[in-house]
Amino acid sequence: MDDSRARDAHQAVDAVYRSESRRVFATLVRLLGDFDIAEEALHEAFRAALEQWPVEGVPANPRAWLVSAGRFKAIDGIRRNARFADVEDFESFAESIPAEEPGEREPIEDDRLRLIFTCCHPALAADAQVALTLREVCGLRTEEIAHAFLTPAPTLAQRIVRAKAKIKDAGIPYEVPGAAELGERLEGVLRVIYLVFNEGYSASSGDALTRSDLSLEAIRLGRLLVELLPEPEAVGLLALMLLQESRRAARASASGDVIVLEEQDRSLWNRELIEEGVARVEGALASRRFGPYSIQAAIAAVHAEAASPGETDWSEIVGLYDVLLRMDASPVIELNRAVAVGMRDGPAAGLALVDAILARGELSGYHLAHAARADLCRRLGQQEQARRSYEKALELARQEPERRFLRRRLAEVGA
Amino acid sequence: MKYLCLVYGEERALAGMDDRHCVAYDEQIRASGQCLASEALQPVATATTVRVRNGKLSVTDGPFAETKEILAGFYMIEARDLNEAIQVASRIPPAEVGCVEVRPIRPIRETVKANAAKAAAD
Fold first, then answer.
1. Which of A145, A196, A237, B48 is the most buried (most CB within 10 A)?
2. Concatenated DSSP letters of A234-246
3. Are A85 and B79 an interchain contact pair (Cβ–Cβ within 8 Å)?
4. Dihedral sign, CA of A67, A69, A72, A78?
């Protein structure tokens, strides 16, 4: 064996690890029926590849080779651990592990969907769904996830251990839900992906305005889901994430200060992401089976296509918020609609709506409601009213960049 | 797998349910073969709590925990997995006014037996 051949084989193992390890893992979970045994088998399979590929050459179908090696290693490991009372028990267990049908594309892709739906099962705690998805589907390390979510690593590891135990003990199946449940279950998956995106887009606490790695991971997940299951709302969510991501470079200054939409330098918006996002949202809307993510993406697309704030089609945006409100009558959506009305019909019309929403009390603890009110008052020249609302917003805001933005505004209205 | 579906709810809300509706579901699930046992319970006012401490029996009136949502009945079911159990639970009529807790059965007899067999083999 010459060195270059060995080096090529090592590179091949590395490349296959990057592109195939999560696929192989998803199939091993199905064959072995257990996340931990599958994880161990995956590592064993790659260890075997590192030993054998430099000598025997890279197999024609590396994925099938790894699945088969992992399955074999798992059975071997179980035998050596003698976890079974007698040989008969073991034999029946070994027989119950199905052999992988080689060369079929479909079951392998189904396995990745199975893995996604299992990690996002609603019987698992919401934070556990997120942690498990990032670890098992995306292949992030526990420490990376803990760091991104500002959670101590042992806490996060514990969360994952508990979730895996529940999958096993409560009998959460490794399957893609049937047509009757697919809609509801897909909603859960989309929620997890969007949660990951938002955690990266606007950190819930701390100094960093964006933790972009998480957003990119969420977009990768969104792409994977659309590829495996091209449902309109999955496409809509991907479009929404792409369009929000397109503004990343413009939404914060070099010093980390917030720049609101109307003050952003639109030349910094990522045209490639906008183009893809707009095309995808058009596809989702054309299906006529779209939901709230597609509508939110459509709103983002209207902003993305306006060359300047003044050229924004606010009537279109108000209309889209009306559709959104019919799907989900939430006060936050109502607030956003009120702001859009303020842009279409003038700040007085917007202020009347915001005041009516605030009077109902649901949003009185929401800093953006007070910030929106302050902004409308400022545009109407009601300095004193604006000052009071900015102060209220500042009292409620937790994120440092947002607080700096509110202090700046407060200074502008002469406080 | 076996699951116990525990039906909880506020007593007043549950009392407003039509018994015939509940029995119709019970007959249906028993006929399907999925139900191993099911009963409705008398109101919580009839509950008695029994404890034994240091060999001494203590009997008190009422349930062991004071909560607004009380245990009102149960279904012991056989289901392929949690998804099927959730489907069954979602059709139990009181799920519309109260809630159903779905708990997998721990195979305690099988575990003890397997452990004893393993100990004998070693």
1. A237
2. HHHHHHHHHHHHT
3. no
4. negative
- CA B10 remoteness from chain centre: 16
Residues of B engaging A, defined by a Cβ cutoff of 8 Å? 1, 3, 79-83, 85-86, 102, 104, 106, 114, 117-118, 121
Q: How many CB pairs below 8 A link A and B?
A: 31
| Distance from the B4 Cα atom to the nearest Cα atom in chain A, whole angstroms | 11
Provide, for chain A, the percentages of residues in helix, strand and coil under a 3-state DSSP scheme, each rounded to the nearest 5. 75, 0, 25
- Name which of B80, B104, B121 is nearest A170 (Cβ-Cβ): B104
**Residue B9 amino acid letter:** G
Walk along chain A (415 residues) and give the pLDDT tens digit of each residue.
567 878 888 899 999 999 999 999 999 999 999 999 999 999 999 999 999 999 999 999 999 999 999 999 998 887 777 555 555 566 666 666 666 655 544 555 789 999 999 999 999 999 999 999 999 999 989 988 888 888 899 999 999 999 999 999 999 999 999 888 899 999 999 999 999 998 887 654 444 544 668 899 999 999 999 999 999 999 999 999 999 999 988 988 877 788 889 899 999 999 999 999 999 999 999 998 999 999 999 999 999 999 999 899 999 999 999 999 999 899 999 999 999 999 999 999 999 999 999 999 989 999 999 999 999 999 999 999 999 999 999 999 988 888 999 999 999 887 5
Say which of A86, A171, A175 has its CB closest to residue B104: A171
Flag if B118 and A181 touch (Cβ within 8 Å).
Answer: no
Q: Does the beta-carbon distance from B118 to A170 stay under 8 Å?
A: no
The residues, ordered by sequence, that sit 6+ positions from A95 with a Cβ below 8 Å of its Cβ are none
Q: Please tell me the distance in Å from B106's CA to the nearest CA on chain A.
A: 8
CA distance A305 to chain B (A): 44
